[in-house]
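Troubleshooting log. The previous structure file for this entry was overwritten by mistake, so regenerating from the original sequence record. Sequence copied from the archived sheet and checked twice against the printout by T.R.
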Amino acid sequence: MKLVQQTGRRNRMIFHLFFSIAVLAFLLTGMYLLYAFGFRFSNPASAITDCLFFLLCIYIGRWLCSNWYLKKQFVLFIIYTLLAIVFLATGKWLLFKYIFNHPNAGFFELSRDVMPFFLIGLVLGILLKLIRASLQKELLDAHIKTEQKAIEFSLLQSQLSPHFLFNVLNNLYGIAIDEQQRIPSLLLKLSSLLRYSVYSGKRTFVPLSEELEYICNYLDFEQIRISDRLVLKADIPAINEPSITIAPMVMIVFVENAFKHAKNTLTEKVYISIVVKIIHNYIYFSVVNSCSENAEKDEMLKENSGIGLANTVKRLSLLYGDKYSLKQYRENDQYHIDLTLKIKNE
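Regenerated output below.
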C-alpha cells in the first residue's frame, strides 16, 4: 500500500513538473513571438516574472477550487479568492518596486495593469480542477457500476443459502402442523427475505430501514432453526426516514457470518449480539458471536454464504472511501465486528 501511495505521489510530481514547464514554455514562446513582431517590453525581467506569477495563479485557482468550491463552501471560496488576488497584487507590487527598482510604482496602477492577467490564471486553474474532478467522478461512477454488476451476479448466484431455505421450509412444515396461525406471517417474512436478496443488489444504495427489516426477518428464521440453543440479543431501532441509505447486503453479511461460526462451536448455547445505533451522522453496527477456541481470525475473512466478507470490505472501500471504519477482533471466546458508516442521505 505504501509503495502504491509513493508511486502515486511521484507520478503526480512528475505530471505537475511537466505541466509547469509546458505552461512556461507556452508563455515564453508567446513573448518571443511578440518581440519578433516588434513589440518591446519595458522590462523583460518583469515580463518573465509575470509568467511565473501566471503559473502561480493557476495553482492558487486549483487550491481554491479544491478546498472550498468543490465542497460547496461558496462564501469562503469568494473570500479566499479575493484575499488571493490581494496577495498576488501585493507580491507583484513589492517585486516591481524593490527588485526591479521602480520606487515610485503605484500599487493601484500596477494592480490594474496585471489584474486581468492574474484573473485569467486563477480562472484557468479553477477550470482545470473542475475538469479533473469531473473526470475522476466519472471514472469512480464507472468503477462503481462495474463492481455493482459483479455484486448483482454474485447475489444471483448465491442468494440465501439453500441449506438455510431447506431448514426454514422444514420448520415451517412442523409449525403448520401445530401452530397453523403462525404460517401466514412467516410466509410473508420469507417472501420479503427472498425479494430483498434478489432485487437489492440492483441498487447502489437502499433505505437503511429495508436492510434492517431484512436482518430482523433473517433473525426470526434463525431463531426458528436453532430454537432453544440460540441466545440472541438484538438492539435494532425502527428507522422511518427513507432518505437514510446504506449499501445493500452489507450488514447481513456480518450477521450471516456470525451465525455460521457460532453454530460451529461445541458449546451448549449459541450467543449472538447485534446492535445498531444512529448517532449524529453515523451508523454504528456491532455484531458479537460466540466462537470456538480454535477459530482463527483469518477464517472469518473467507467466502461464506452471500457475497462474503472479502467482497463486502471491497464494496465498503469503494462506496464509502474513508467514510467508514471496520474493526474485527477476538476477545476471550467471542468474535467482535464493529462497523461505522457515514450516513448517505438521498
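The longest strand covers residues 270-279. Archived copy saved in two places this time.
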